[in-house]
Structure to design on (271 residues):
């Protein structure tokens, strides 16, 4: 097993364990803090895969914005009373079955496939010559310009929707 | 060199854990977190494919997934707060009224 594979095995085991901790903690604050740790691991995996810009976005947007939003909401809602009740629904054994069957079937199928790549033009050398951010930006602002503009409209709708939904009603 | 299959299998396992969390938990916030977990596992597989196929499309798709995840989290949590003002519970099996 090479050094790279050993690093990957550490990340795989840590991320699987953290995911299990996230869905089994009783206190949602603990879940969110585990999720933050998981995001750092995911960003490390992105660095392995030569996607520096995505690693930075993962930390800034997910860990910095979305998880802080979750923390704010958990602390805004006073949830002390919720911690004493059962944390799983009545049908949780069925959920365990679905999860195990899904994971087993996916892993068995995916261990059998071989990808015969039709390699594109963005090799590691090509990205390193231009820089990760430059490469992503060039593709984003030429080939994917319309989806990029639509993404800005989605964010605008989210801002307006959040303000309208969460504000106090004016009598 | 790490094989591509390993990344995809890791992503599949994380996705399954997210599915379990979404189906089994009663706490609506933890269900949202499970949803984010599923989105992130898909992102890992997209970035892995993007690297191994030497294409930029996977990374661009991850960018849009993150945008939609941010919008979804903001709207979902706003709906949650609006509901909590009327009925102070976030247990999904007790949420059965749209207007109360």
């Amino acid at each position: 097993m090479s050094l790279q594979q050993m690093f990957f095995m550490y990340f795989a085991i840590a991320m699987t364990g953290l995911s299990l901790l996230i869905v089994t903690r009783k206190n949602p604050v603990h879940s969110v803090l585990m999720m933050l740790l998981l995001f750092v691991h995911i960003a490390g995996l992105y660095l392995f895969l030569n996607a520096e810009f995505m690693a930075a976005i993962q930390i800034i947007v997910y860990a910095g914005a979305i998880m802080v939003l979750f923390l704010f909401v958990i602390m805004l809602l006073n949830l002390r009373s919720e911690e004493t009740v059962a944390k799983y629904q009545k049908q949780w054994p069925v959920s365990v079955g679905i999860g195990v069957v899904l994971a087993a079937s996916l892993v068995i199928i995916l261990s059998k496939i071989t990808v015969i790549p039709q390699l594109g033009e963005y090799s590691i050398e090509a990205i390193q010559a231009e820089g990760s951010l430059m490469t992503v930006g060039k593709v984003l602002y030429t080939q994917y310009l319309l989806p990029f503009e639509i993404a800005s409209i989605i964010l605008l709708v989210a801002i307006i929707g959040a303000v309208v939904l969460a504000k106090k009603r004016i009598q | 060199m790490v094989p591509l299959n390993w990344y995809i299998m890791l992503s599949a396992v994380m996705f399954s854990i997210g599915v379990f969390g979404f189906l089994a938990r009663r706490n609506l916030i933890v269900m949202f977190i499970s949803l984010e977990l599923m989105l992130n596992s898909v992102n890992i597989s997209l970035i892995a494919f993007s690297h191994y196929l030497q294409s930029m499309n996977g990374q661009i798709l991850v960018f849009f997934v993150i945008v939609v995840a941010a919008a979804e989290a903001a709207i979902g949590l706003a709906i949650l707060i609006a509901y909590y003002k009327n009925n102070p519970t976030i247990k999904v099996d007790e949420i059965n009224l749209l207007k109360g």
About this structure: Chain B touches chain A through 71 residues (CB under 8 Å). Chain B has a mean pLDDT of 89. The CA atoms of residues 47 and 66 of chain B lie 13 Å apart. The radius of gyration of chain B is 17 Å.
